[in-house]
Design goal:
392 residues; alpha/beta; Rossmann fold; 7-stranded parallel β-sheet; 4-stranded mixed β-sheet; 15% strand; binds nicotinamide-adenine-dinucleotide; binds magnesium ion
């Protein structure tokens, strides 16, 4: 029987890789819904090629192009936030959550409430609403399968393991495009340099997060929630080849690692076919060709965003929600050429300090509370951006 799937964020980097995985085994999947932000023409193409039943753009401005692109196909077209949530709530076997940012939270939560299992790429929605998100999933007995490569690796490593036997959970980081750059050079980094990732090909926002190392910090918080891991048991190591994705260290000192090519179709395929393993459209990893695997500690001086995320993780409560929202605002401003690369962690730190001093860092008890705190944090970050522009 084919698996009913929905792709939220079908036109993005993850969405396109998922479409490749599905196209490689078309008989195994029945695509129900595909969604995108505003590019109706591109979404119509994806919907047609996957034989989807319904296509929805979040932004109503994209509906004209979507309708035009779908003319004569028999595929339903929809637009707007409500239509997105409704489409996400259509019960299927698996929903791939691959929208970027906390903007994907409502649709992902709607899918959970309908009892669909989730293949989670959208880490920001988990960082924003951590505990509320995971307890909603437990309440609806929904599986959350991690797409993020490091978490997918941990998921595989943890299979049938006793938590009591494991001392440390380590995520690897490529180090990003500025790994070897001096502080002065990093300060001059342009958006174009920041999105040129050395090992992974990804959307703009996560590429900037990889350049600041905020991505690895978000991933520590992601791992904490996904696998209920204590902050002190989580660790990061820089591994520029991106061949090892995660490691677990047992209490007897033995270390197990997961290795694989740096191609997101691998973890996406793992989730889409789970619990089966099939041959993915991915070239195999030739370790003799890679020849060397190197490791080094992360440098928190040159990459302060990672330190900020680590303290938000230890602090708990709403700190991660604020960190994530302020980071989204700061990255968008950097990509738009409005602030320097080094302003990103500064904006995040200022929003965190302001939220803390206003007593706003209690744990959000629900998705709605998380989104309310997210909105406040965005305003704090915007206010800081405004001050910077006034000074500049
Ligand atoms: P992307 O920018 O390439 O694609 C984002 C998708 O979401 C697009 O389909 C876009 O139309 C849609 N979208 C954007 N804003 C939206 C909004 N406000 N409402 C509705 N839809 C919206 O991003 P990506 O690189 O594919 O990343 C998607 C998610 O997966 C992110 O959370 C990212 O952190 C995570 N992730 C990505 C990779 C990767 O290799 N790209 C790896 C691990 C995790
Ligand atoms: Mg990752």
């Amino acid at each position: 029987m084919s698996r009913r799937v929905t792709l939220l964020g079908a036109t993005g980097s993850i969405g396109t890789s998922a479409a490749d995985v599905i196209a490689a085994a078309p008989d195994l999947f029945d695509v129900h819904v595909v969604t995108a932000r505003s590019n109706g023409a591109k979404l119509a193409e994806v919907a047609r090629s996957l034989g989807a039943r319904r296509a929805v753009v979040a932004d109503e401005a994209g509906l004209g192009d979507l309708r035009e692109g779908l003319a004569g196909s028999g595929i339903d077209a929809g637009a707007g936030a409500e239509a997105m949530e409704e489409a996400a709530a259509e019960p299927v076997d698996l929903v791939l959550s691959a929208i970027v940012g906390a903007a994907g939270l409502r649709a992902t939560a709607a899918a959970i409430r309908s009892g669909s299992d989730i293949a989670l790429a959208n880490k920001e929605c988990l960082i924003c609403a951590g505990s509320a998100f995971m307890s909603l999933a437990r309440q609806h007995k929904v599986q959350v399968l991690p797409v993020d490569s490091e978490h997918n690796a941990l998921y595989q490593l943890l299979d049938k393991r006793e938590a009591a036997d494991i001392r440390t959970y380590t995520l690897t980081a490529s180090g990003g495009p500025f790994r070897t750059w001096s502080v002065d050079r990093i300060a001059q980094a342009t958006p174009q340099q920041a999105v040129a990732h050395p090992t992974w090909s990804m959307g703009a926002k996560i590429s900037v997060d990889s350049a600041t190392l905020m991505n690895k910090g978000l991933e520590l918080i992601e791992a904490h929630h996904l696998f209920s891991l204590a902050p002190d048991s989580l660790d990061v190591i820089v591994h520029p080849q991106s061949v090892v994705h995660a490691l677990i260290t047992f209490r007897d000192g033995s270390i197990h690692a997961e290795l694989g090519p740096a191609d997101m179709r691998r973890p996406i395929g793992y989730c889409l076919h789970w619990p089966d393993r099939v041959r993915e459209p991915v070239s195999s990893l030739d370790l003799a060709e890679v020849a060397q695997l190197t490791f080094e500690p992360p440098d928190l001086e040159r990459f302060p965003a990672l330190g900020l995320a680590m303290s938000a993780l230890r602090k708990g409560g709403g700190a991660a929600t604020v960190l994530n929202a302020a980071n989204e605002v700061a990255v968008e401003a950097f990509l738009a050429g409005k602030v320097a690369f080094t302003a990103i962690p500064q904006i995040v730190e200022i929003a965190l300090t302001a939220a803390d001093s206003e007593g706003l860092l209690a744990t959000p008890a629900s998705i709605d509370e998380a989104l309310a705190l997210d909105a406040v944090a965005r305003r704090l970050a915007q206010a800081d951006l405004k001050r910077r522009r006034a000074v500049a």
